[in-house]
Amino acid sequence: MSTTSVEHDNSPSPAETTESAWGNDAGGDDFNYTPYSPWGPVAMTLGLASLLGLTNSIFGLGLAALSSIVGIAAFFRIRAASGAFKGGGMAIAGAVMSVCCLVGGSVKLKYDFEHEVPAGYLRVSFPDEISDRRFIYYGNQRRLDPAVAELVGKKVFLKGFMWNVYKSDGLQEFMFLKDNGECCFGGEPKPYDMMMVHLKADNTTPAFTGMISVSGTLQADPFAEKGEAVYTVEADIVEEALTPF
Questions:
Q1: CATH superfamily membership of 122-240
Q2: What are the pLDDT digits (tens) for 78-130?
Q3: What distance in Å separates the CA atoms of residue 126 and residue 220, rounded to the nearest whole number?
């Protein structure tokens, strides 16, 4: 009597091959994937934005402070998930960057403020030490406040903004305001809110849209006619301000 042998094909089926390629065993375990927490990229992005803190910008320093808090909170939030999310490294990197920008920007701002006044000039706050003191009137006679009168003839360092400039370069004189136009919104500036700046000799300056610093000799004419500047500055130096206050 003959015997018939049956051979069995033990090669894996296409379905089993596909599972093996994706790392799944015969039991059908799920693919092992750990997602990134969105807090990681957020912290990193804010860390990069914190570089504004190195530009002597108050907004930039405020952003760096906020970003430091967000970055540290993001790191601990991801860590508290016990491995459910990735991104802790990005969060801590963003936090470190933000803290460095906050500290470095603060130190730079302090240094620039302490060294921005040229030698021989007195720092004077245009809004607080001149504009806010206004004038003193005796009948119809205008007089300077005694504290302001003491500054006349001295070499001062002032900050403010150009106003109503008529060209973008080659300026030999310009109107100088205590702020960026808020004092005269909708009208002419008050005589104690403005100064006329004259550059000495043949010096010129380009027009600036942001805050500038003016170093020169302060002069005053309490009897100036309406529409004329009471205060004038014979300027030696006009440049973009290093610090915003």
A1: Protein of unknown function (DUF3299) (2.40.50.870)
A2: 888 888 888 889 999 999 999 999 999 999 999 999 999 999 999 999 999 99
A3: 14
